[in-house]
């Protein structure tokens, strides 16, 4: 049934874009029901394209749905095409979320630095071991010490005064 709705939409998109958009919406729902994410995103894209002619204020939402669907699938070419279309409509391209923040927990790199500090390594030793610049190591060490609430002497020779690196005990 999804293919039928899609075919109807394709036949009508040039002459009756509003009706075509309805058929693409039906195809999108049916693809969703049977777990076909690529087809869901493709139907959302076609729906958005059809709506640009008759209801341009609604088109970006459907194209953005397509971008998210294609991005989740790693379909970079499809994602780029939809983002280009959004830019043509004057919409900012959707951005991927940034890197995860670790809050008061140590990041994986900070855990490595903390382990080396606990073993008595100097900043220079850490830089050579982890292939980092001394300045980068200084920043990591400062963050580790701040998050652990200790001074450098409190972490050397063993775990910090709190005896825990993060919520999972550093493991």
UniProtKB/TrEMBL annotation:
A single GO BP: regulation of DNA-templated transcription
Segments forming domain HTH luxR-type: 99-164
UniProt name for this protein: DNA-binding CsgD family transcriptional regulator
InterPro entries: Sig_transdc_resp-reg_C-effctor, Tscrpt_reg_LuxR_C, WH-like_DNA-bd_sf
PROSITE patterns listed in its UniProt record: HTH_LUXR_1, HTH_LUXR_2
Alphabetized UniProt keyword annotations: DNA-binding, Transcription, Transcription regulation
CDD domains, A to Z: LuxR_C_like
The organism's taxonomic lineage, starting at the top: Bacteria, Bacillati, Actinomycetota, Actinomycetes, Pseudonocardiales
Gene Ontology MF terms: DNA binding
